[in-house]
Automatic annotation (TrEMBL):
This is Anti-sigma factor antagonist. Residues 1-95 form the STAS domain. Belongs to the anti-sigma-factor antagonist family. CDD domains: STAS_anti-anti-sigma_factors (cd07043).
Amino acid sequence: MEGEIDVYTAPRLRELLIDLVNKGNFHLLVNMEKVDFLDSTGLGVLVGGLKRVRAHDGSLELVCTQERILKIFRITGLTKVFGIYASVKEAKEAHGRDK
């Protein structure tokens, strides 16, 4: 992902997540390193995606180090819900996937 995840762009993200789950992808990693804005609509789409994958015993985790985006997850308490990693490599290593 890059740019803004807001009321205008969130529907595309929602469709992408639904499509991935419908195709049997239940362990998703969203790279948010190039996201410079996230609003409540975008946050809702991520939570909705998490619910979809968890219905299949899956996971939706995030790569994010930008303080302004991380602050949103902290304020909302979602750091306890999403796995948040500093890099794609770190996320893969945490799950024993290929580096």
